[in-house]
Structure formats: C-alpha cells, structure tokens
TrEMBL record:
Belongs to the ribulose-phosphate 3-epimerase family. A divalent metal cation binds at H32, D34, H65, D174. This is Ribulose-phosphate 3-epimerase. Pfam families: Ribul_P_3_epim (PF00834). One of its GO terms (molecular function) is metal ion binding. Pathway: Carbohydrate degradation. The gene is rpe. Binds 1 divalent metal cation per subunit. GO terms for cellular component: cytoplasm. Keywords: Carbohydrate metabolism, Cobalt, Isomerase, Manganese, Metal-binding, Zinc. The keyword Manganese applies. InterPro entries: Aldolase_TIM, Ribul_P_3_epim, Ribul_P_3_epim-like, RibuloseP-bd_barrel. The keyword Zinc applies.
Length: 214
C-alpha cells in the first residue's frame, strides 16, 4: 500500500490545529510541507514559524520539500525545527552530494527531487545515498495544477534501477495527484503520494485517504 502525505499548502491555515487532528484521525502517513523562496520557484510559501506550529500540533512525520536556492544554507535549520524528512532539488545546487550528506548528518531522512524537465540521469550518481526520490509531476510552485503524464516514464526508469541495483529508496510523486491519476503513478512504481488541492477539497479526509491509498 502506498503512503500518503497531504500537502499542507492547501490546508486551512486559520484552523491548522484542527486540520492536523483530522489528518491523524484519517490515518495519513505524514504531512508534506512545501517551502518556496520566490527564487527557485515563482512563489513564496511557508517557513520556520509555521513548521514550529505544525511540529507542536502533530506527531505525524513531517516531509519538508525545499523549493529554494542554496538549500545547503538551511537544511540543518529545518532539521532542528522538527523535519523528519528533507528533500532538495538537484536543480537548486551544484553540490547535491554535499547537501544530501548534510541532511543525513542531521539525522533526518534525505530525499532528492527532480523537476518535470530533469532526467533521471541527473541523480544517478547519488542514488545510493538517498532514502527517497521525489519525481515532480507538475512544475513546482503552485498547488492545483494538472498532472504531467510524461513524467511516468521516469517512474519506470527509477523502478528499473531500484530493482537492478537492489536498492530500497521510496519513490514519491507530487503534483496533480487525485482519484483519476493515482492509479497510474502507483502502477508505475510510486509508493509515496503527495496530494494537496484534491485532498483538502474533500470534506471527509478518511474516505479520501482510502481512495488515494487504495
Ligand atoms: C507544488 C508543491 C506541491 C503542491 C501539490 O509545487 O510541491 O506539494 O502542494 O499540490 P496539488 O496536489 O494541488 O498539485
Ligand atoms: Zn511539494
């Protein structure tokens, strides 16, 4: 069964505490926390003060997705403030190997992210180091965009490499995941699902969790 991490970007920030409680009761596997800097992506989202509030409000694992330039300057900070997993974009730094080591040294799970326009080849040199690989299924920056179908070829490639090298990284997908697209990504090897706008649009989080996790 796939793991589900609803993206808090689409949650009701006025009622974050109730949202977190409802997510726990729905049986999700963790929460996805999107950090945008207005440089790497054309949008600005949330950062440390909100992470502190989320950490205080839940024991669910927090998956921090850093959509920022120079992630090497901030990974320790996000780890200190309660992240359980941190992913960084390979496009955001010339030093991806060093940043992954930094994340691991901070004792949190390390992930690497590839944009729709980035090939799997870009992360092959560090593939043995990471706990998870996030394949963006939209261009990062906004919730509510449509799933880009061609990205599933990369899920196939990653599944093949994973099997061939006998590795155990998780394959995460983020962007446009809903009741129509979820089966496709699962069929192509994804086992960690992020869902934002589709998830939080529903009134019954338990039933949408069931729909997405299968
Ligand atoms: C997009 C973010 C996503 C976003 C997904 O840049 O990384 O996590 O919240 O939202 P949906 O599920 O609405 O595409
Ligand atoms: Zn994300």
């Amino acid at each position: 069964m796939a793991k589900l991490y609803p993206s808090l970007l689409s949650a009701d920030f006025l009622n974050l505490q109730q949202e977190l409680k409802a997510l726990e009761e729905a049986g999700v596997d963790g929460v996805h926390f999107d950090v945008m800097d207005g440089q790497f992506v054309p949008n600005i989202s949330i950062g440390i003060p909100i992470l502190d509030a989320v950490r205080e409000g839940t024991r669910l694992p927090i998956d921090v997705h850093l959509m920022i330039e120079e992630p090497e300057k901030y990974v320790e900070l996000f780890a200190e403030h309660g992240a359980d997993m941190i992913s960084v974009h390979v496009e955001a730094t010339p030093h991806i190997h060093r940043v992954i080591e930094q994340i691991k040294n901070a004792n949190v799970k390390a992930g690497v992210v590839i944009n729709p326009g980035t090939p799997v080849d870009a992360i092959v040199p560090i593939i043995k180091m990471v706990d998870y690989i996030l394949v963006m299924t939209v261009n990062p920056g906004f919730g509510g965009q449509s799933f880009i179908g061609d990205t599933v070829d990369k899920l196939d490639q990653l599944s093949e490499v994973k099997q061939r090298l006998n590795l155990d990284f998780d394959i995460e997908v983020d962007g446009g995941i809903n009741d129509k697209t979820v089966q496709t990504v699962i069929d192509h090897g994804a086992n960690m699902l992020v869902a934002g706008s589709y998830f939080f649009k529903q009134s019954d989080y338990k039933s949408v969790t069931k729909t997405l996790k299968g």
